[in-house]
Design brief:
With about 350 residues, this protein is an alpha/beta fold. It folds into two domains: about 15-160 and about 300-350, Quinone Oxidoreductase, Chain A, domain 1; about 165-295, Rossmann fold (3-Layer(aba) Sandwich). It has ten helices and 17 strands. The protein is globular and about 60 Å long.
Length: about 350
């Protein structure tokens, strides 16, 4: 199977500013790098906003080893098409577009052929295997750039590429939430506050679970029906008193929270794991079987999920909350994210 061949195009300028990861566990640095030039089928995008994902921290820390160094991070990108290469017919300079973690997927492997390009065997990833959007310009295959509705601001569009698209897939493809279901969301951060809104848009009642009152107030702002402070009361009992969750989604890295989410399910319920913990999760297998419970992992999204997420944002059914930082404030933003001090999603603007 032929994979995507990364091109080495001639460079036409030497004054592009980008934020680089040069050493693990070190602050990022701003440098001038060569401007990208689009090859056949590619487009160059002038970045207007780029979201900061928690996985960026894990790459910086070495928990997710980067595919290369130096590396330009950033896989939640929104901007304007600057130029297009030969063969690109559906995009033109000036178009508003988004770019996600899926820089390229092959369309031919067993997973792509059944609509699961999020686990494409040959994928290349923005801000990981190829340089991402922590830069003034980024290039990508035009097939993987998604048009942004005119009424969606760039910062909010960045969230649709991941922080909305991930819970959207978790609550539709992975668990198939139905109107009237009780959905519990463990962890009300960049993903969690959008999970609350997506679940509400699907017609569910939502229980928000966190250990910080500020996060629970945030959950209330975005529409949660019930609030549970897991540092003050037993979330399992509280959710069971409501009848048990049809779907529980965990956006945090806590194994304890994942077990609590499992224990809060009613028979026939589904646990969807999004957070990336270190370690192993112990579950009671007989209980799991006898109660007909489903435990599902969910990694990322597809381009379809991003398009649906942008529609939800455009319609006003989901309103991603973002905290804006200037390009040069990247290390401050990363540190605030590391400390859990960001309300919603941290976004760099240009």
């Amino acid at each position: 199977m032929k994979n995507y061949k990364l091109s080495n195009n001639d460079l036409y300028c030497e004054n592009l500013k980008a934020i680089l990861l040069r050493e693990l566990q070190k602050p990022l640095v701003i440098e001038e790098v060569p401007d990208p030039s689009p090859a056949y089928g590619e487009a160059v995008v002038r970045v207007k906003a780029v979201g900061i994902c928690h996985s960026d921290l894990e790459i910086i820390d070495g928990k997710i080893p980067p595919a290369k160094l130096p590396l330009i991070l950033g896989h939640e990108v929104a901007g304007v098409v600057e130029s297009v290469g030969e063969g690109v017919k559906h995009l033109k300079p000036g178009d508003r577009v988004a770019l996600s973690w899926l820089w390229w997927t092959c369309g031919r492997c067993r997973y792509c052929l059944v609509g699961r390009e999020n686990i494409c065997e040959n994928q290349l990833n923005t801000g990981y295997t190829v340089d991402g959007g922590y830069a003034e310009l980024v290039k990508a295959p035009a097939t993987h750039l998604i048009k942004i509705p005119d009424n969606v601001p760039f910062p909010e569009a960045t969230s649709a590429t991941d922080a909305v698209a991930t819970p959207y897939r978790a609550l539709t493809f992975a668990s198939r939430v139905m109107p009237g279901d009780l959905v519990s969301v463990f962890g009300i951060g960049g993903l969690g506050h959008n999970a609350v809104q997506v679940a509400k848009a699907l017609g569910a009642k939502v229980v928000a679970v966190d250990v910080l009152e500020s996060k629970l107030e945030f959950a209330k702002e975005v529409g949660a029906d019930y609030l549970i402070n897991a540092s003050k009361e037993d979330p399992v009992k509280a959710i069971k008193d409501l009848g048990g969750a049809d779907v529980a989604i965990t956006t945090v890295e806590s194994l304890k929270a994942m077990r609590q989410a499992y224990d809060s399910l009613r028979p026939g319920g589904t646990l969807v794991l999004i957070g990336l913990p270190v370690g192993e999760l112990s579950l009671p297998v007989i209980d799991w079987i006898l109660k007909d419970i489903k435990v599902v992992g969910n990694i990322g999204f597809t381009r379809y999920d991003i398009m649906r997420s942008l529609e939800l944002v455009s319609s006003g059914k989901v309103r991603p909350r973002v905290e804006l930082f200037k390009f040069e404030e990247v290390n401050t933003a990363l540190e605030k994210l590391r400390k859990g001090e960001v309300k919603g999603r941290a976004v760099l603007t240009f």
